[in-house]
Amino acid sequence: MHENLIKKAKHILTENYQPGGFTLPCKNLYPFQWLWDSGFIAIGFAHFDMPKAKQEISTLLDAQWENGFIPHIIFHTDTDTYFPGADFHRSDLHPLSSKKYKSTGMTQPPVTGFVLEEMYNISPDKEDLLTFIESEIDKVYANHRYFYQHRDINKEGLVYIYHNWESGTDNSPIWDDIWATVDSPRYDFKRRDTSHVDASQRPSKREYDHYLHIIEIAKQHNYSDEKIAELSPFLVQDPLFNAMLIKSNESLIKLYKRIGNNEDKVRQLEQWQQLSITSFNSKLYDEELGCYIHYDLRNNKPLRYISSSSFAPLFANIPDKERAAEMVNTMMTKFGNPEQYLCASFDPTSERYNPKQYWRGPVWINLNWMLYKGLTQYGYKNIAERVKQDTIALIEINGFYEYFDARKEAHGEVRAGYGGNDFSWSAALLIDMLS
Ligand code: 9WN
Predict the structure, then answer these.
(1) Cα 383 to chain center, whole Å?
(2) Which of 220, 238, 298, 313 places its Cα 20 to 30 Å from the Cα of 247?
(3) What is the DSSP string of 138-163?
(4) Which domains are seen in the chain, by residue range?
(5) Ligand 1: which residue has its CA nearest to atom 18?
């Protein structure tokens, strides 16, 4: 079953793999290495080319800074076909940044811990994988230590993101409330993304002004975490980001126990984990909405919107069974209309929903993959199966696009897959779901 789809998916990953030992998220549109893309890509490769899966992660971790930070883009080449590039981001401003690679000074959801565990579970050669994990795991641990030391300003086990690009869900309508409080300058710059894909499916010029403005503030302070926490107009506790950290903590605990002789690290991880899960459940859950939401640390208020990020905690085993049932009920009521594919990235009943525009509504395969795993874990077999079948259908009808229209009626004569085509994580995670 689905042999042709799997064949095509493998071909995409292999084609997007680069001589530098990493994989492009998408040719032309994204010409470098991205953090969470690399994690999902490694899971895909693990099913048919383990050396590439390992290389992907090794290259990513090779770009780690001395303080444990892992950047969101690693600029392996000098191409100027992406904006903003290395010369804009200037990672060299930070005293502890990598001397070997140019990068951004922001990060992305910390997927690396759970990716190592997924690779271990996929591999038929456990001994070989454990040797590989032993060689890399301390770097991931150092990354988690960075988060708890520098980004948990209230010492409550919840870390902040200071830029919408760190969330991975770049132009989510959730950020509109924040942009309304920021008076960013109007910059003069040349976008590159809109020369590759339809501008109406991407963030607006004004949104890019905000994106650049926050980076300028961070650069003025040489990417100091303390200064960023004090000054960035965007400072958010994101349920998707924090759920990824918690999921990865759990994986590191399991893997260190398997390796043995790492009691101190296990103890520390368990401490972080306990505090994180407790605060996550008390601070980020909205009883009335019946799901998890974002918290705006800068303006000290919850951002009460439902997005696909609201359900990601299922993947990280964060809610108890009762709460999970409430969440599934919210999801099915708001997002589960049979005329829609699961799972839209933003609440389809909201006036801010836009089914074609990037993170303002379309379905994304990485979020579906997490949802599928989370629902399965909590015993929601039928809904999990629907997520899986919807994912397959979207790709079968349209191709391996970056994101997809959630409305069934939109699919047919015209294509309703949007953004870049032959998109790596859509290929990688489909391979995983079908294996
Ligand atoms: C900025 C690479 C990345 C993904 C993000 C997605 C998009 C970049 C952009 O592409 O963001 O990081 O230029 O729009 O939103 O999740 O990692 O695929």
Answers:
(1) 22
(2) 298
(3) HHHHHHHHHHHHHS-TTSSS---B-S
(4) 3-149+239-277+305-434 (1.50.10.10)
(5) 25
Alpha-carbon distance of 336 to 344, in angstroms, equals: 9
The amino acid present at 303, given as its one-letter code, is L
Nearest alpha carbon, ligand 1 atom 1? 165
The per-residue pLDDT of the chain, averaged, comes to: 97
H or E element at residue 102: strand 102-103
Segment 192-206 mean pLDDT: 92
- Per the DSSP assignment, residues forming a β-bridge with 307 are 346
Q: Write out the DSSP string of 159-214.
A: --B-SHHHHS-TT-GGGHHHHTT----------SHHHHS-GGGS--HHHHHHHHHH
Distance 211 CA to ligand 1 centre (A): 13
* Two tokens, residue 112: 């690396």
Ligand 1: atom nearest CA of 35 is: 17
37 lines ligand 1 (CB under 6 A): yes
Integer-rounded Cα radius of gyration of the chain: 20
What is the ipTM score, two decimals? 0.99
Q: What is the pLDDT of residue 43?
A: 99
Give per-residue pLDDT as tens, 350-363. Answer: 999 999 999 999 99
Please tell me the number of Cα atoms within 13 Å of 10 on its side-chain side. Answer: 12
- From 361, 366, 349, 350, select the one nearest 410 (Cα to Cα): 361
Assess whether 402 carries a catalytic annotation. Answer: yes
Query: What is the distance between the alpha carbons of residues 229 and 149, in angstroms, rounded to a whole number?
Result: 12
Kindly provide the b/e burial profile for residues 115-141, where b requires at least 16 CB atoms within 10 angstroms of the residue's own CB: bbbbbbebbeeeeebbebbeebbebbb
E strand or H helix at 17: strand 17-18
> Given phi > 0 = left and psi -120 to 50 = alpha, else beta, which region is 409?
alpha
What number of residues does the chain have?
435
Between vectors from CA 24 to CA 164 and to CA 431, what angle results, nearest 5°? 95
pLDDT tens for residues 6-49?
999 999 999 999 999 999 999 999 999 999 999 999 999 999 99
